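Tokenise the fold.
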Amino acid sequence: MSGRPTLSSIASALGLSHQTVSNAINRPDALRPETLQRVLDEIARTGYVPSTAARQLASKRSRLFAFRVRPAPNGLHGQVVDNLLHAVTERAAAMGYHLLVFAAQDDADEVAQIERLRATSNIDGVVLTDTTSQDIRPGRLTRTGIPLVAFGRPWGQDSSHPWVDVDGAAGCRMATEQLLHRGAGRVGFLGWPQGSGVGDDRVSGWRQALVAAGAHDDGDRWLGRCLDEVSLARAMAHDLRADGVDALVCASDTLALGARAAFRESGLDTSRVVGFDDSPVAALTGLSSIRQPVEQVADFCVQRLLDADAVPRTRILEPTVVFRSGDFVT
């Protein structure tokens, strides 16, 4: 056999019909095991690669999922979504699908771009991230019939769209419990300004652990809030230290880096500062952090878009707490 192998040339070499060879690729369950193995062996021997265009025509699918990429205001914010993009790309590729990534100015522009991609590229679905309590995207996309799955719950909205999320409250509860078990007397929390669904959920887990341990915070004096900036977090951590806080759970690794600097300046045990997201910076600098199961999130997203009937509509996954020394790794 010379030249680039095709379905027809493989069929001719094996003395089989074109349809039989096609079924081996697209409907292997329709063939007898011995016939299927003959075709697969010949495909491996010749290095045949199925035509993407032909498969799209046959299945009436583009084999494309859309995914919006966002700018990161600092080096840590958005790391989880970047990891998710990589994981979804890998899992989609394993199923013969690819990601079409795009940028958008805001959520309304994201919806408009997805609708254009549906019209021009016939995308088979979309993965949404960074959900909020006032999110317009799931409702508008559902009404247009575009398959979707969201990383992030609806945050108070009664929505029927599929989503997967990580239990941030459970992660912060576990971190607080473990800090208390390790001898901390007053575990505080450093989070974002009130009103963020993700941030408020993480605060709730910290409170649950304090109540269960009988270590009540007097009037939220152990709770600090600021924007996601290291310098602000450092100043806020010093304020919390003035109220006797000797350990901190933080809503992000960025906040934890600022808090750890304050603990170091106060001569406190820096291993008692726990961040959230377990970013590469956390691992590199010895920062304890709460790790999200990004690979499981990606599995759910891809499986849901491929076969909605075989996958639950929603799923909440549990994170893990990774404790480290608190000091820079050299």
Observations:
- Residues 155 and 197 are 6 Å apart (CA to CA).
